[in-house]
Amino acid sequence: MRITLRQLQIFVAVARTSSTTEAGKHLPLSQSATSAAINDIESLLNTQLFDRVGKRLVLNDNGRLLLPNALSLIESAMDLEQQFSEAHSSQPSQLRLGASTTIGNYILPGLISGCRRQQNLSECEVAPNMLLSIANSPKVAEAVANYEIDAGFIEGQCKEQSLDVIPWLQDELLIVASPHHALAGVGKVTLDSLQKAFWLMRESESGTRQVVEYELLRHLNHLNIGMEFGGTEALKRATVEGLGISCVSRWAVADYLASGQLVVLDTELPKLTRKFHIILHKQKFLSDNLKHFLNHCAGSEMFKTAVKSNGINRLSPT
């Protein structure tokens, strides 16, 4: 075998940065050494992998064909090293998790804490072993597909062919308002009143926004969207201040409902629900530590049934 993992690593770095200079800074290597490595791998494969556009290197169709295979090989090598390092260490490997906003802010912290208590780890042992990144659902799926994180937890749809998408939890979407809002004390809120109301929404890329719009528009046909927010906390605060009504996850507003800062509107709409999913790369090696955490998260029968029906035997406890 003539192609080395180091050459593939350099190829991936250049593919991500579109520059031998920037890739060299991450590796670290000189620009000339990085450029030479790209020339070598193109020579070994007897094909051009990049289009040269000015000073930028842009993946062509050959490069796009190689990229997922290169990522898979590099990830497998890293997993192999990790397995053997774990065998000689009392510390479990670091897990890289990604989650969409609602799950990352309101669900996973409690699950991580419960998993650590189950493993009898002290507080000082928790932080180094878990890295949680929060982004919208498409970004989380992209990170899992590129092996940048080990597992993703999303609230939106995912059609990425390289990923296993496993139904996980069912969430309820509530229409909430300030207790001082005009619709808060009127009894049953009609569909006409909801159409005329001033709605507060998450940004368009948000998984919650996509589901909310889909579910509400089925019944209301039109939404009077007045403000958009890049985060759930800002959306909640704006609703508390009476700037409009919003439709959010029960998980996200449980604290404000308990304190009386928000109330659930009684509407003519049917119960609004959605599914959360766990996503894994189909070629991803699952370490014992990752399997333990995922099985701790599983909980619901829906998750266990989906794992069984999809034949995802990698999640079987060790």
Notes on the structure:
This protein has helices spanning 5-17, 20-26, 31-45, 61-87, 101-106, 108-118, 123-126, 137-145, 191-196, 207-220, 232-240, 250-259, 288-298, 301-309, and strands spanning 50-53, 56-59, 95-99, 130-134, 151-154, 163-177, 199-202, 225-229, 245-249, 263-264, 272-281. The protein is an alpha/beta fold. It folds into three domains: 5-86, Arc Repressor Mutant, subunit A (Orthogonal Bundle); 90-168 and 275-315, D-Maltodextrin-Binding Protein, domain 2; 170-274, D-Maltodextrin-Binding Protein, domain 2. The strands form two sheets. Strands 3, 4, 5, 6, 7, 8, 9, 10 and 11 form a nine-stranded mixed β-sheet that branches. Strands 1-2 form a two-stranded antiparallel sheet. β1 (50-53) and β2 form a beta hairpin. α1 crosses α2 (20-26), α1 packs across α3 (31-45) and α6 packs across α13 (288-298). The radius of gyration is 24 Å and the shape is elongated.
Largest sheet: 9 strands, mixed
**What shape does the CA trace take?**
elongated
- Any idea what the CATH superfamily of the largest domain is called? Periplasmic binding protein-like II
What is the second-level CATH architecture of the largest domain? 3-Layer(aba) Sandwich
What's the mean pLDDT score?
84
CATH class of the largest domain: Alpha Beta
Structural class: alpha/beta
Rounded to an integer, what's the Rg over CA atoms? 24 Å
Helix content: 40-55%
According to CATH, the fold-level topology of the largest domain is D-Maltodextrin-Binding Protein, domain 2
The separation of the N and C termini measures 34 Å
Q: In terms of quaternary structure, what is this?
A: single chain
The total number of structural domains is 3
Number of strands: 11
